[in-house]
C-alpha cells in the first residue's frame, strides 16, 4: 500500500521527477573544515539563545556557547574548536542581521569535555529529554521547532511517532542520502524517540522515489514490532506535517491545533539522526547534510558541513556557478527563502542551498486570474485560493478567512500550478498580516474599553 | 567572488508548472480542431472561411480596445481566438461574414473587454455574441442548409442557393423523431450551426481536454447526464424513451455547449460541487426551454442564465477545509 493525501502537485519533468536526478545518486561528501563559522543565536523557533562566551575565549568542538533563552528555545554549540572572534549582529538567512558568535577555527577539532556517550537504557525519561534539550536539537526539516518541547508536550497525548522522510521538496536529496548511507542513525533515533514517548506505533514515512533506501531500513526495523516503513506517494507537499499525518494515519489535525491533538508526533529524519548521535557519541548538533543544486551550480552535490559554514564555501566545493545566478535559495524551491548574499551561514534547518540561472519562477508583468480552479485541486488544505486572492486584494478580510486564509500552510502548490502566474502565496502572506493587525487592533480596543469600564467602576 | 548582480529576491514558491494561460487556450483550440474538420467536410470550405474571419475579427477588436485604453495587448493569451472559433461555431454556415464580425465585436468589446478583459467577464463572450446575433438577425441565424450543399466561399447565400433543411431539433420540438438516423447525428451529417453537429468530433475534443487536464469532467458529465435523465423520464409524444433520449442528447448544441461553453473557466464555478450544480442547472434549463420555450434550442440561454449564478453557486459550495470535520464533531459531542 502507498500512502497519500488529497490535493498536491507533481513538480518536475517526466524525465526528472522532482528535479532530484542531479544529486540523488551522489554520496554525501564531507566538506573541509571552514576557517571560521558564524553561529546565529536564533537557529530555531522561539526565544533567541543567550551567548555565554565572549570575544577572545577559546572554545572546543561541541562546547555550549549560548544557552537557551526560555522553554521554547535551544542552546547553540561551537561547531569547530578555536577562538571567539566576534559576538555581533551578522546577516542571517531570514534577511536581517541577527546576533551571532563568530569562531575562528584552529583546525584541531578538539572535542569539549562535556562530549561523551550516554547510556540511554539506564537514563530516566527526564534525563533523556534534558539530554536532547541540551544538545540543541531542533526540527531539522526547516521549521526548527525545539525537539524537547515537541516531545514534552506530546507525551501522553501521542500514540504514534512518525519520522518524516518524505523529502517532497524538489531538488533536495540530503534526507535521501542520509537514509541510504546511514539508516542506523535514523532507525536508532526513531527507537529512542518511541521509547521516550512511550508509543507502540513508530513509522518511517518515505516517498517512493527513495526505494533504494528501503532494504537497509527494513533490515534494521525487522526486530522491533513497533517500527514500520510506510512508502508514500511522490507528491508535494507529502512532507507537510498535517498531510503526512493524514496520509499515514487517516487523521486530520484540527484547524488551529497541533499534531499532538491528532495523537501524532512528527520528527524529521535528520532530527532522529541527531538524537541518535547525541546519545551514542554525546555530540550536540554541529553538522548538517546540505544538497547544493540548481541550474546555476556547476557540480551539484550532497555535502556534510559544519553548522555556521558560510554558503560561499559550499558553492566553492561545487565548482562555483556555471552561469551567473538570478535566484539563490536557502531550502527548497517551494518554500525556501530567497537570499542575496553568500556570506550567510548554514544553520540547523538548512537542508539545501539552490542557485537558479534560468527563468524557473516564470514571473509575468500583469497576471490575470482566469478562474481555472487548478489552485483548488492543488490545495492540500482544501481551501479556495482563487477566492482568497480576490478577497485578499479587496481587503475583505472576513470573506478571506471564510475561504481559508488562516488555514493556508503556504506550501505554494496553488502558485505553482497557476497558469496566470499569480504570486498567490505572497498575496496570502500580506493578507494574513492584515488579518493579524486587525485582530490585534480589535483586542487592544477591547482591552482599553474594559480597563476604562473598570476604572469607572472604581 | 561570485557575480551576484542578477540575483533577485522574491517570495516562494520559486518554480512554476509549465502550463500557462496561453498553453491552456492553445489546448482548447486543438480540441476544437476535430469539430472544425467535420464542419469543413459537412458544410464545405465556407465553414473554415467564417471561422477564420471570426478569429481575426476577435483579435483585431481586442487589439483596438487595448490600444484605446492603453493596456498591453492581451491577444497573446489566445483566449480571443477561442472566442472567435466558438462564435463561428454558433452560426449557420449560410450566415454572412459581416454578421460574424458584428458578433465578434459584441462578444469581445461589450461582453469581455468592457468588464475588464480576460477573467473578469461574467458571461461567456461567444454565447453573449450568439444571443446578440439571434436577437438582431433571427432569420439569418435560423436558416439551415443541408450537409454537402455547395455554398459560395464568401458571397451572400441566396434562398435558391440554400438547400434549406430542418434541424433535428425542430422535429423534436413537435414531439416527432427526426428523419436523420442516430448515426448521422453522431457523425454530424445533419443541419445545424457550424460547430455543433458532430457529437463524435466534439467528444474527441472533450477527451483531449480531459487528458490534458484543461477541464474536469464535472460540468460536461452533470450537464449531459441531466439532459439524458430528464428526457428519458419525460419523453414527448408517443416514442421510444431510449430513442427520444438519444436524439435529445445528440441534437442541437448540447455537446458543443456542455464540453466547450459551459466549461469556460471564467464563467463557470470553481468548486467541484458547484460545477456539478452548474451542470445540472444547465441541463434542466436546456430541457425546459426545448420543451416549453419559444425556440427549439435552449443550450446557449441555459448556460448564459447559469453564468449569472456562478458567484452565488461558488459561495454556497465551499469545500470542507482540511481539519474542520473533527471540530464540528467535537462541538456536537
From TrEMBL, chain A:
* Family assignment from sequence similarity: Belongs to the 4Fe4S bacterial-type ferredoxin family. RnfC subfamily.
Complex formation:
The complex is composed of six subunits: RnfA, RnfB, RnfC, RnfD, RnfE and RnfG.
- Keyword field: 4Fe-4S, Cell membrane, Electron transport, Iron, Iron-sulfur, Membrane, Metal-binding, Repeat, Translocase, Transport
Q: What does this protein do?
A: Part of a membrane-bound complex that couples electron transfer with translocation of ions across the membrane.
Q: Which organism is it from?
A: Agathobaculum faecis
Q: What is this protein called?
A: Ion-translocating oxidoreductase complex subunit C
GO-annotated biological processes:
electron transport chain
Enzyme class (EC, first level): translocase
Amino acid at each position: 500500500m502507498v500512502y497519500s493525501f488529497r490535493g498536491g502537485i507533481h513538480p518536475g519533468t517526466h524525465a526528472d521527477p522532482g528535479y532530484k536526478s542531479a544529486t540523488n545518486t551522489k554520496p554525501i561528501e564531507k566538506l573541509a573544515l571552514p576557517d571560521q563559522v558564524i553561529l546565529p543565536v536564533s537557529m530555531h523557533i522561539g526565544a533567541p539563545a543567550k551567548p555565554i562566551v565572549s570575544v577572545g575565549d577559546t572554545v572546543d568542538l561541541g562546547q555550549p556557547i549560548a544557552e537557551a533563552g526560555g522553554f521554547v528555545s535551544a542552546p547553540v554549540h561551537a561547531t569547530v574548536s578555536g577562538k571567539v572572534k566576534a559576538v555581533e549582529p551578522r546577516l542571517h538567512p531570514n534577511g536581517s542581521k541577527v546576533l551571532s558568535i563568530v569562531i575562528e577555527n584552529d583546525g584541531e577539532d578538539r572535542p569539549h569535555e562535556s562530549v561523551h556517550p550516554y547510556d540511554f537504557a539506564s537514563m530516566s525519561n527526564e534525563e533523556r529529554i534534558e539530554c536532547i534539550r541540551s544538545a540543541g536539537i531542533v526540527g531539522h526539516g526547516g521549521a526548527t521547532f525545539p525537539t524537547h518541547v515537541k516531545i514534552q508536550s506530546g507525551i501522553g497525548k501521542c500514540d504514534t511517532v512518525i519520522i518524516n522522510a518524505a523529502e517532497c521538496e524538489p531538488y533536495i536529496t540530503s534526507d535521501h542520502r542520509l537514509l541510504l548511507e546511514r539508516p542506523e542513525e535514523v532507525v536508532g533515533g526513531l527507537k529512542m524517540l518511541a521509547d521516550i514517548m512511550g508509543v507502540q506505533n513508530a513509522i518511517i514515512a518515505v516517498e517512493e522515489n527513495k526505494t533504494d533506501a528501503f532494504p537497509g531500513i527494513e533490515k534494521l526495523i525487522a526486530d522491533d514490532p513497533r517500527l514500520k516503513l510506510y512508502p508514500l506517494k511522490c507528491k508535494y507537499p507529502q512532507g507537510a506535517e498535517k498531510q503526512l499525518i493524514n496520509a499515514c494515519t487517516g487523521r486530520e489535525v484540527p484547524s488551529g491545533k497541533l499534531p499532538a491533538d491528532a495523537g501524532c508526533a512528527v520528527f524529521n529524519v535528520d532530527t532522529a539522526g541527531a538524537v541518535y548521535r547525541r546519545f551514542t557519541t554525546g555530540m550536540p548538533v554541529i553538522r548538517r547534510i546540505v544538497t547544493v543544486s540548481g541550474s546555476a551550480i556547476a557540480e551539484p552535490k550532497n555535502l556534510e558541513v559544519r553548522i555556521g559554514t558560510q554558503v560561499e564555501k559550499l558553492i566553492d566545493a561545487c565548482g562555483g556557478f556555471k552561469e551567473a545566478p538570478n535566484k539563490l535559495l536557502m531550502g527548497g524551491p517551494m518554500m525556501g527563502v530567497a537570499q542575496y548574499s553568500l556570506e550567510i551561514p548554514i544553520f540547523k534547518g538548512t537542508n539545501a542551498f539552490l542557485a537558479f540561472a534560468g527563468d524557473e519562477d516564470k514571473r509575468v508583468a500583469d497576471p490575470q486570474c482566469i478562474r481555472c480552479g487548478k489552485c483548488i485541486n492543488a490545495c492540500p488544505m482544501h481551501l479556495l485560493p482563487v477566492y482568497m486572492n480576490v478577497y485578499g486584494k479587496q481587503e475583505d478580510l472576513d470573506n478571506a478567512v471564510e475561504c481559508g486564509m488562516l488555514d493556508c500552510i503556504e506550501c505554494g502548490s496553488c502558485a505553482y500550478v497557476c497558469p496566470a502566474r499569480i504570486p498567490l502565496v505572497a498575496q496570502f502572506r500580506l493578507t494574513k498580516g492584515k488579518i493579524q493587525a486587525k485582530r490585534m487592533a480589535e483586542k487592544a480596543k477591547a482591552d482599553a474599553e474594559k480597563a476604562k469600564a473598570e476604572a469607572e467602576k472604581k | 567572488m561570485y557575480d551576484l548582480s542578477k540575483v533577485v529576491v522574491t517570495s516562494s514558491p520559486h518554480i512554476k508548472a509549465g502550463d500557462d494561460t496561453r498553453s491552456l487556450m492553445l489546448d482548447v483550440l486543438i480540441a476544437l480542431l476535430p469539430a472544425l474538420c467535420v464542419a469543413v467536410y459537412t458544410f464545405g470550405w465556407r465553414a473554415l472561411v467564417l471561422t477564420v474571419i471570426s478569429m481575426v475579427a476577435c483579435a483585431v477588436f481586442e487589439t483596438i480596445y487595448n490600444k484605446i485604453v492603453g493596456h498591453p495587448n492581451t491577444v497573446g493569451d489566445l483566449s480571443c481566438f477561442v472566442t472567435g472559433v466558438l462564435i463561428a461555431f454558433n452560426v449557420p454556415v449560410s450566415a454572412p461574414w459581416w454578421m460574424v464580425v458584428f458578433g465578434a465585436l459584441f462578444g469581445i468589446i461589450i461582453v469581455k473587454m468592457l468588464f475588464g478583459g480576460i477573467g473578469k467577464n461574467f458571461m461567456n463572450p461567444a454565447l453573449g455574441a450568439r444571443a446578440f446575433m439571434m436577437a438582431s438577425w433571427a432569420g439569418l441565424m435560423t436558416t439551415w442548409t443541408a450537409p454537402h450543399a455547395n455554398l459560395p466561399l464568401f458571397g451572400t447565400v441566396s434562398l435558391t442557393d440554400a438547400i434549406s433543411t430542418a434541424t433535428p431539433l425542430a422535429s423534436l420540438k413537435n414531439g416527432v423523431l427526426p428523419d436523420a438516423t442516430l448515426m448521422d447525428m453522431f457523425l454530424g451529417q445533419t443541419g445545424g450551426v457550424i460547430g455543433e453537429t458532430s457529437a463524435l468530433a466534439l467528444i474527441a475534443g472533450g477527451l483531449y481536454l480531459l487528458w490534458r487536464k484543461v477541464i474536469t469532467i464535472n460540468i460536461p458529465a452533470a450537464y449531459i447526464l441531466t439532459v439524458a435523465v430528464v428526457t428519458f423520464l419525460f419523453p414527448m409524444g408517443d416514442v421510444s424513451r431510449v430513442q427520444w433520449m438519444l436524439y435529445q442528447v445528440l441534437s442541437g448544441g448540447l455537446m458543443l455547449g456542455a464540453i466547450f461553453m459551459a466549461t469556460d473557466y471564467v464563467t463557470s464555478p470553481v468548486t467541484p460541487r458547484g460545477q456539478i450544480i452548474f451542470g445540472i442547472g444547465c441541463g434542466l434549463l436546456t430541457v425546459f426551454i426545448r420543451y416549453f420555450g419559444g425556440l427549439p434550442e435552449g443550450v446557449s440561454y441555459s448556460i448564459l442564465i447559469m453564468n449569472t449564478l456562478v458567484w452565488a453557486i461558488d459561495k454556497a459550495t465551499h469545500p470542507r477545509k482540511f481539519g474542520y470535520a473533527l471540530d464540528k464533531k467535537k462541538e456536537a459531542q
